[in-house]
Amino acid sequence: MYYLKNFESYTNSYKNSVENPEAFWNTIAKDNFVWKRPWSRVLDWDFSIPKISWFEGAQLNITENCIDRHLEHNAEKTAILFEPNNPNDTSEAITYNELHKRVNQFANVLKSKGIQKGDRVCVYLPMIPELAISVLACARIGAIHSVVFAGFSANALSSRINDCDCKLLITSDGGYRGAKTIDLKSIVDTALLDCEGIESVLVAKRIHKDIPMVSGRDFWLQPLLETASESCEATVMDAEDPLFILYTSGSTGQPKGMVHTTAGYMVYSAYTFKNIFQYEPDDVYWCTADIGWITGHSYIVYGPLLNGATTLMFEGVPSYPDYGRFWSIVEKHKVSQFYTAPTAIRALAKQGLDLVSPYDLSSLKILGTVGEPINEEAWHWYNDHIGKRKCPIVDTWWQTETGGIMISPIPNSFEGKPTFATLPFVGIQAALMDEKGDEIEGNSVEGRLCIKFPWPSMARTIWGNHQRYKETYFSAYEQNYFTGDGALRDENGHYRITGRVDDVIIVSGHNLGTAPIEDAINEHPNVAESAIVGYPHDIKGSALYGYVTLKKSDEMNDALKIEINQLISKQIGPIAKLDKIQFTSGLPKTRSGKIMRRILRKIASKDTSNLGDISTLLNPEVVETIMKNSL
Ligand code: WT7
Fold first, then answer.
1. CATH number, domain containing residue 583
2. What angle do CA 519, 364, 493 make, to 5 degrees?
3. Range of the domain at 552
4. What is the best residue among 149, 251, 343, 397 to mutate for testing ligand 1's pocket, by most ligand atoms within 8 Å of CB?
5. Ligand 1 binding residues, C-beta < 6 A
6. What was the pLDDT predicted at 217?
7. DSSP string, 225-239
8. How much distance in Å is there from the Cα of 342 to the middle of ligand 1?
9. How many domains would you assign to the chain?
10. Is the pTM of this model over 0.90?
11. How far is the C-alpha of 628 from the C-alpha of 4, rounded, in Å?
């Protein structure tokens, strides 16, 4: 899979990809995948409709590209390396050969339950091999998978099932998460009280618990798999047939079911994986995300398997049995590429080095981060203590909607620098826009981040609501995909994502991004994490309210507040000083680790009558404490 190896090859490829995108992607698609029929047209698009179509006329099946084609030379190579929650349980290495059989058996079970091409199948599973296998089994027969993160509540699950009319649900008797056992099936039973469309439920055994099974609806998976045939012909799919739906929350309204299609998603997820993680045949690659998020879809399952890689799947949490678990897994499996979220890095850094130093991390070659801007302090900790200053860090900016990484350093081509996602990947035409909707040219500028030209893995629509797709992404800036993020471009053309533009706060007419202020605060040695929101202010319009968590709670005092403001003054300027600072034991977070600033904004604004749905938070209990101590 074509390698970007140095800055020159990146700049040449980038130039080609912009000057002649069709020829560029044509070559990559032709040289690196197996097709049942070639395309008649590489790209057809119009952002004003919007319509985006890649590799029109082509036919393929993505699982033949993920599995079958590796059987000739790599049948015995490990495809999925499963590391269980409990470190004393044995890990499982699933070879490409075994994966082929297990996906086929699973696909045959789906067929026996009446699932056909185009049907929607909901997957609600913990991080066990069946999760990856069920996703691939759907793709094998052209069913559209809709994975719902197993941390979501019954309400969230039923609304997602109903939104896209799923016919079948795949779940398990339960799951392990650290010291906890999660009773998944009872959540499913509650959810299904509201889901008339679900005809069958397949239940994998994980915790071996005696659970109620609804006769005629619920089936244990294992016995069905055992009797299913190990061969299953891959269904022929058109390039633009939907591959999956994945829900993501917007700033308003119900979650949006982003629809990703087959060929373009395949080409882009595979190509970015290869080049950004510089995967080589003997590497063991590990992404710590859950397959319930886009990161897991693209960079645990599809991207790695399309490259014939060994991809590690971890069932547990970073804190179990202690905060050294990630590093013990890196040592145990000699992980080469490690990809995680800044929030995890900050949590681990807070624990101190005693939990890092016992482990041999010398197998690591490349480190990655994703999901939110990474602050300088966390970046340096990651670089110094995990990468030992030898591993390039790829700060990868992208979204559920983009399907693959959009802006990122490319190891061996150009380096990262703290807080910068750096340069657009090949084929990605990034632009910054001003408030009036005009493009801001040149360097050392800041604006709203848009993408001017289609890329192969962009979501094609919102399930059942094309109008909302158009309004959300293609209406703010004519003929542009609007990301919802703000960014700055430095003097070298490198991008720094400054955060969602809905988080921008105007203080006395000055535009302030929350991320740089939080960065400044987090540099204080006593600070663990912080979040800034705006609240109404008589004179300034908006003023800044900071929520700050400390490494040690006995340090909450006024002197520290002064020091924090001094740091901000120093890093950004007095304009960015906080009017109010509240020390708190925690910040409300989504299950993917994002701070819910919406809630903090309401509390800071003393507008707590309607906080919205907080039940899907990781730590809903913290909201009440914050409210009680609000300034
Ligand atoms: C939003 C998308 C893509 C997988 C996980 C999140 C923020 C993502 C970065 C980064 C700064 C980032 C953006 C983006 N984001 N990666 N490297 N630096 N911000 O997917 O839940 O769809 O969220 O996450 O604000 O718009 P998502």
1. 3.30.300.30
2. 45
3. 508-628
4. 397
5. 248, 293-295, 370-373, 395-400, 421, 483-485, 497, 500, 592
6. 98
7. HHHS-S--PPPPEET
8. 11
9. 1
10. no
11. 53
